[in-house]
C-alpha cells in the first residue's frame, strides 16, 4: 500500500498546500506545515497483523509516510525499547524504559527525519541541500544526501565537536563553520538559498523531517502492544521529535490502533544554559523568546529559538506535561548512570532525560509505578568528553 499523503496544512492558519510540490513554510503566514493523510484509507491496511510481515525499519509504516513507494533507506528506525530495570531502581522507578536511538544509521534519531526529507526532496527534483546543524542532523543529512547523489552544504557552529565535522566530510558534505549558535547558522543558510540554488532542509522549515521523526511514536505504540506509556521524557532542541510523536499519537488514535485512548504526559528537557521552552512554559506563554548566549555541552540542546515553539508548548499543555531544565553536571551524571546501569553509552541529551526523570520523581510529578520512557536520542561516541570525568 503506497503513501496516503493528501496535502499539507498550515499549523496556524487555514491555508493548505499541494504535497506534490516543493514546500517550505506556509506561503500565507510563515508557519510550519503539517502533512495530512487519508487515515481512513491507511487504517484498512496498516494493521498489527499486516505489520508483522513487513520490513523492519521505519518505512514499515508506509501508509503514513511521504514518498514511501521509493524510500531512501539505511535501516533507520525500529530501535530497541529496553526495559531499564537497574536504571529504574537507581531513580526509584519500577517500570522504566530507554528507547535507544543511538542504534540508528549515523548514530542518532536524526536519521529518521533525514530519510523522509531527503526522500521527498529527491522525488521533487532537488539537487542541492543546505542546513544549519548542531552536529547530528548534519551527519544524517550528509549520509542521506550521499545516498541520493545530492550536494550538501552544512553550517555548523564553530564549537561543534570534531567527530561531527569529520563525519560530515567523510560523507562528502561541504562543511562551513560559523561563529555563534545554530540560529546564526540558519541565517547563513537563508542568505545563501537563492544565490546558491539550495533547498533549505532546516528542521520544520520543510514538512517531512517531522514525518520521519514521528515514527518514534508509532514504534512506541507497536513495541508496547498498542498502548502508550504514562510519561515520555524527550531532550528538546528544535522539538521536532516531540511534535512528531504527539502527531503520531493522534494519527494512531484516528486509525483505531490504540487499545486505550490515554496519551502520555510529555516532558521537554532542556539545559540550564539554554532553556527557552522551559521559560515560556513556566510563564504560560504561547511562543518562546530567543535565549541569549546559549551554552551546554549537549550540542543538540544548544538551540536558542525553535521554529515550532508553539507546537511544542501546545503538546506539553495538551498532554498535561511539563518542561524542565537540568544542569550540565546532572546531565553528565545521567550519561554515566545510563552507561553503568544499562550498558548504553548515550549522548549528553540522553543523559539529560535521566537527570530530568530523577528530578521529577523526587518532586512526586512522576510516580514510582508509572511507565516512563526516556529517549536516548544519540550515541555518546561523537562527543569528545563528559564534564568531570577523568580518563587516563
Ligand atoms: C542527540 C540529540 N538529541 C536531541 C536533539 C534535539 O532534537 P529536536 O530538534 O528534535 O528537539 C538533537 C539535535 O541536534 C540531538 O542531536
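Sequence proposed for the structure above (392 residues):
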Amino acid at each position: 500500500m503506497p503513501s496516503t499523503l493528501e496535502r499539507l496544512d498550515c499549523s496556524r492558519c487555514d491555508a493548505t498546500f499541494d504535497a506534490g510540490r516543493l514546500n517550505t513554510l506556509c506561503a500565507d503566514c510563515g508557519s510550519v506545515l503539517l502533512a495530512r493523510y487519508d487515515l481512513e484509507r491507511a487504517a484498512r491496511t496498516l494493521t498489527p497483523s499486516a505489520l508483522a510481515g513487513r520490513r523492519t525499519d521505519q518505512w514499515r509504516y508506509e501508509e503514513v509516510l511521504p514518498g514511501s513507494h521509493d524510500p531512501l533507506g539505511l535501516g533507520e528506525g525500529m530501535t530497541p525499547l529496553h526495559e531499564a530495570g537497574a536504571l529504574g531502581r537507581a531513580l526509584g522507578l519500577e517500570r522504566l524504559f530507554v528507547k535507544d536511538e543511538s542504534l540508528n544509521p549515523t548514530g542518532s534519531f536524526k536519521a529518521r527525519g533525514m530519510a523522509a526529507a531527503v526522500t521527498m526532496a529527491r522525488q521533487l527534483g532537488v539537487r542541492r541541500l543546505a542546513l544549519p546543524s548542531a552536529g547530528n542532523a548534519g551527519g544524517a543529512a550528509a549520509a542521506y544526501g550521499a545516498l541520493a547523489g545530492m550536494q550538501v552544504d552544512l553550517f555548523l557552529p564553530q564549537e561543534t565537536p570534531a567527530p561531527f565535522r569529520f563525519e560530515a566530510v567523510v560523507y562528502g558534505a561541504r562543511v562551513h563553520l560559523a561563529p555563534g549558535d545554530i540560529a546564526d547558522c540558519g541565517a547563513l543558510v537563508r542568505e545563501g538559498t537563492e544565490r546558491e540554488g539550495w533547498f533549505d532542509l532546516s528542521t520544520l522549515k520543510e514538512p517531512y523531517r517531522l514525518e520521519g521523526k514521528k515514527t518514534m511514536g508509532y514504534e512506541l505504540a507497536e513495541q508496547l502492544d498498542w498502548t502508550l506509556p504514562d510519561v515520555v521524557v524527550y531532550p528538546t532542541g528544535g522539538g521536532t521529535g516531540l511534535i512528531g510523536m504527539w502527531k503520531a499519537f493522534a494519527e494512531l488514535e484516528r486509525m483505531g490502533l490504540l487499545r486505550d485512548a490515554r496519551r502520555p504526559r510529555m516532558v521537554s528537557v532542556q539545559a540550564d544554559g539554554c532553556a527557552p521552552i522551559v521559560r515560556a512554559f513556566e510563564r504560560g506563554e504561547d511562543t518562546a523568546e530567543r535565549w541569549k548566549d546559549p551554552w551546554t555541552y549537549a550540542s543538540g540542546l544548544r538551540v536558542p529559538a525553535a521554529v515550532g515553539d508553539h507546537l511544542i508548548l501546545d503538546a506539553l499543555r495538551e498532554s498535561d506535561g511539563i518542561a524542565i531544565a537540568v544542569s550540565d553536571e546532572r546531565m553528565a551524571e545521567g550519561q554515566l548512570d545510563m552507561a553503568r546501569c544499562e550498558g548504553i553509552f548515550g549522548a549528553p541529551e540522553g543523559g539529560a532525560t535521566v537527570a530530568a526523570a530523577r528530578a521529577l520523581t523526587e518532586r512526586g510529578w512522576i510516580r514510582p509505578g508509572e511507565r516512563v520512557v526516556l529517549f536516548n536520542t544519540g550515541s555518546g561516541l561523537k562527543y569528545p568528553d563528559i564534564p568531570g570525568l577523568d580518563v587516563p
